[in-house]
Amino acid sequence: FLLSAHAAARGASLARSSSALRASALRMSTATLPTAKPEGELGTEEFKVNFVEGSEPRSPWHDVPLEAGNGLYNFVNEIPKYTTAKMEVDTKAANNPIVQDEKKGKLRYYHGCIFWNYGCLPQTWEDPNVKGSEEVGGAFGDNDPIDVVEIGSQRLEMGSITPVKPLGVLAMIDDGELDWKVIAIAATDPMAAELNDVADLEAKMPGVVSGIREWFRWYKTPDDKPLNAFGYGEKCLGAAKAKEVIAETHGFYKALLEGKTEKGKLWLPN
Asked: 224: number of CA atoms within 13 Å, CB side?
């Protein structure tokens, strides 16, 4: 009886926590945020997703706040799960639309679909002038906003902005550059209240972390590229480290806007 009562109380607590998370996420999602506005036909060079607020152009990198409240962060989805087109926020174009990456004049596609929603956090930047620690082999940042792998059950639309909870982070090293991968879950997902750290993820969704690591390790090899590596002994670091990395890259971003760092070809608001 006592065990049943304890289980019931725990279930009620989880339900309340889940309900509060969803309510918070819904409030944030209805706040004034830029709206995605696709233009052209997907699979052509003309296709892009612009962002607007009313009739005014906006940037998903600069005009979306990083924090969504209650420990959540705004996630800009570039690539919906189960798709292959390699989409990304164009950091060098005016207002930073989402476009399909190109290589040697051809649109880029993954050789197999990605199994999670994939995008970035606004107002973050992996500074290519900053050398990483020994744990990442001294790799420099990749000159992009920090990447997010969103593991929830829903397929999020390209250009959608979703409050997410960070659970962990992988220190991927791609072509010698540090390319952090934050693992997160949409705050509205049914599993969000049960997942707070990597240990929860491993216990309740076993195989997800290793699946993400191996997918990103191998995805470039069909193009005769080497395997990607991972720092910190390939360990998926916990939620605290993920938040630390997010804060660090947000600091790099602020320094960039303040002119303390050379912007190169990046597009910044006036």
From this structure: 0
Say how far apart CA 151 and CA 34 lie, in whole Å: 23
- How is residue 42 annotated by DSSP? T
* Predicted TM-score of the model (pTM): 0.89
Report residue 30's pLDDT band, with 50, 70 and 90 as the boundaries. Answer: very low
- Amino acid identity of 163? P
Assigned token pair, 245: 């990395």
Could you give the CA distance from residue 256 to residue 265 in angstroms, rounded to a whole number? 12
| Segment 85-96, tens digit of pLDDT | 999 999 999 999
Q: What is the percentage of the chain residues whose pLDDT exceeds 90?
A: 87
Distances (CA, A) of 125 to 169, 194, 228: 15, 30, 20
- Cα dist from 232 to 4, 30, 50, 166, whole Å: 41, 38, 37, 18
CA–CA gap between residue 81 and residue 157 (Å, rounded)? 9
Specify the pLDDT at position 6.
47
